[in-house]
Amino acid sequence: THARSLSCVAAFESGSLNIDQKDLREVLAISAGSSLYITQFLWSDPFSPAPSSFIRRSVGNVGKQGTALLFSPNNPKIGDPGYDSWRSVQHDEFDGKFKNNFPETSLHLSFTGYELALNTGQHGLRDKEAYFLQTVVQAYERSVWVADLDILGALGGDKIRFSRLSQRCQHTPIESKSAGHGPITSIDCWAELLDPPNNCSIIRAKGNWLARLATTVVAIQKTRHVIIASEKVCWACI
């Protein structure tokens, strides 16, 4: 699991820390020295994520001493649709074309200021050796904040609130093109996702793993039933 891998990272980086895996279940990354160790499946396309035990190392840190254990708030904030913006909510019917209509989506990290020292059993240290640091993953469109993301809670929690559409089904090519769920609405911008239609809809972010990740998490946080698909979709399976 990712908690076991992060526990190993903390031990190797510090040379002394022995953090129980249960204390790392809600931790998404570790900042230590000049490195940031991120749970890989949290930064992958949600249709084909990396194994949960994979950790990705990036150069950088959170600007604090010691070993920082990054975790997200339990109740992430989601923005309003923004009806006063120049992009109105269209909710057009899906025309069968897959596009990337979220090219200017980006993710950023910020900190709430909340810290909690982890009891490592070692005393007399001048600085906190290991501590939890509340970290907010934020989705932006251009320079406009859209929503806070609890990626681990949405995709790696105990309650699975999404499914992945199988690429191996028993439907024939003709059957796979037929749909029995009525009209499908295209979601082509963040405003349309924040104010979704009541019927079946499709978020069009073809080939953009970061936007697919962000929109999937927000849809789950809005308690929508989410089906993650690749470019090959069997409409009879939906």
Automatic annotation (TrEMBL):
Domain of life: Eukaryota
Record's protein name: Uncharacterized protein
